[in-house]
RNA sequence: AUCGCAAGCUGGGCAAUUGCUACUUCUGAGUUUACUCAUGGAGUAGAGGAAAGUCCGAACUCCAAAGAACAGAGUGCCGGGUAACUCCCGGGGGUUAUAAAAUUAAUUUUGUAACUACGGAAAGUGCAACAGAAAAUAUACUUUCUCAGUGUAUCGAGAUAAAGGUGAAAUGGCAGGGUAAGAGCCUACCGCUUUGUUAGUAAUAACAGAGGUCCGUAAGGAGUUCCAUUAAUUUGGAAUCAGUGCAAACCCCACUUGGAGCAAGGUCAUGUAAAGGAUACUCUGCAUGCAGAGUAAAGUUGUUCGCUUUAUUAAUCCCGGGUAGACCGCUUGAUUCUGAUAGUAAUAUCAGGGCUAGAUAAAUAAUUGCCGUUCCAAUUUAUUGGAAUACAAGAUUCGGCUUAUAGGCUUGCGAUAUCA
RNA sequence: GCGUCCGUAGCUCAGCUGGAUAGAGCACCAGAUUUCGGCUCUGGGGGUCGAGGGUACGAAUCCUUCCGGGCGUA
């Protein structure tokens, strides 16, 4: 796996994986409430992280939505080493989507507007996974 | 030079690092030796003028073939262009505004600009609120005029549709004659209808004639206006230059039109699963399960006709279950650029050159530096600092239309200022 | 992607074969009743008929272009 790459195998491509994240995933919000993330563990044992950016249709027009998705992907690509170390067997499925931001508030959105929130979300996910693993280990 | 309007064009540039998609190629691995897989390397390419809205038109695919009739839908001045069009180009008519000329005024003519779904209202049906006497079969409120009566300013009988008033709209307009008063009742001009000639492919335009009553070159016969109706102008029936507007009301006429759409459609893989149900009825012939006929059902994406199918291990459909994968379709095309020729133009033809995204929870990005363009502030007057840099992103592909759009460039027209 | 339907008062809807004050229920306001409140009765306010353009004497209604929203479709 490239240290700063984001190839096809690191993205969610299948429809049933998307619906699995939506139905059984756990939701967390960033500290500034700008973004939210949904994550869960998949069934296969590839030992990778798969992400997908999801933007609701009402947040802006196609140009803005495309740009936000690219910014999510870029900021994850630069900071994905936070989560790589703790993944051992199960595939981690992760969806990032905007919570309170839309085109009216940020007509010209740039990377620094979302990168800190993405780092915040990745840290929270890391902590939750580690605490859950400790509980199961104790039991 | 500035400002405004209209039309057309353009839609920031260069570099570095990291990353994504497709293709080519190298390296490595696996084997079926030409395919697959890589934390691999290198190279090339990677959103628009509207990609948008999905408002029209096609290509392409399937529905047996794409057949007939009707219904339905669409289009609607004329000609041309095109694969086709609710598109484009050219021409004509109309409406509105404005300027000039004619003119006592109203109006007319000419020019310019904008708009124009612009076939038929005399095939038929329907609608026309309020107001008004009367709204499509016309009719008579106030007048005006005649006659008769008398109480001399009113009533009665009749004539009239010019004037007033209503309305969006009142049976052509206006002037003169005529008359008791009036009326195409008659006349001139305008308008309208129609015939011919000329120009034009045509829409149409220009010119000449005819048509509102006098006799005829048309068959009808005589005058004039209206309805009934008869003791009276006396027989008959309406008419002879328009009987309003609305067809983006129904409709009529002419032309066009089968339906569905790339989630079309095809191949492969996975999989319930050799699962279950349905595929009818009647008659005739015989060799007793075949043939023929009829009904019925299903399909033919509105209806009818026509056509196809209706059983013995096969096919079709229904129900239930499963997969929501891969590949083809998928990008060389009514293609684009340059030049020549034809044409007023849209466009067409010819010659030469170019290849320019094919993604699929969906690639074309992020950061930084330098330079552009516009605005603001500061001053060292050409520098510094700050801000802004639009609308918006393919999803089978083309031709249009519509809508959004910072800034810049070109051309034309108009206004203002300055100089010669 | 393709195909379809709908926008009327704060809310839910009528009116849409053109005709003038756009109507009903709930909600709101005022008055009456009540010691007060509710129920009830009486009265009132509130609409650029999603936006622009056109046809027509006249448009919520007909035509057309946009804007917003819903539904269906393998």
How would you portray this structure in words?
With 139 residues, this protein is an alpha+beta fold. The protein has one domain (8-138): 2-Layer Sandwich (Ribosomal Protein S5, domain 2). It is 43% helix and 17% strand. It has 4 helices and 4 strands. It has a 4-stranded mixed β-sheet with strand order 1-2-4-3, sandwiched between helices. Helix 2 crosses helix 4. The model has no long low-confidence stretch (mean pLDDT 78). It binds 2 RNA strands through helix 1 and helix 2.
Task: Describe how the helices and strands are arranged.
Elements lengths: L14 H10 L1 E4 L5 E7 L7 E5 L8 H18 L1 H4 L7 E7 L12 H28 L1
Parallel strand pairs: 3-4
Antiparallel strand pairs: 1-2, 2-4
The chain binds 2 RNA strands through helix 1 and helix 2.
- Main beta-sheet strand count, sense and barrel state: 4 strands, mixed
Number of strands: 4
- In whole angstroms, the N-to-C terminal distance is 33 Å
Assign the CATH topology: Ribosomal Protein S5, domain 2
Count of helical segments?
Answer: 4
Shape call: globular
CATH architecture field: 2-Layer Sandwich
Whole-number tally of structural domains:
1
Main structural class: alpha+beta
Order of helices and strands: HEEEHHEH
């Amino acid at each position: 796996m490239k240290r700063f790459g984001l190839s096809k195998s690191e993205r969610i491509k299948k429809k049933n994986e998307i619906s699995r994240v939506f139905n059984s995933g756990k939701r967390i919000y960033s500290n500034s409430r700008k973004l939210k993330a949904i994550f869960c563990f998949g069934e296969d044992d590839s030992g990778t992280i798969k992400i997908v950016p999801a933007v609701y249709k009402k947040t802006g027009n196609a140009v803005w939505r495309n740009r936000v998705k690219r910014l999510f992907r870029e900021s994850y690509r630069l900071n994905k080493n936070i989560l790589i170390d703790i993944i051992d067997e199960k595939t981690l499925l992760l969806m990032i989507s905007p919570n309170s931001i839309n085109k009216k508030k940020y007509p010209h959105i740039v990377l620094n507007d979302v990168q800190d929130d993405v780092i915040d979300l990745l840290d929270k996910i890391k902590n939750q996974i580690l605490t859950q693993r400790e509980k199961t280990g104790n039991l």
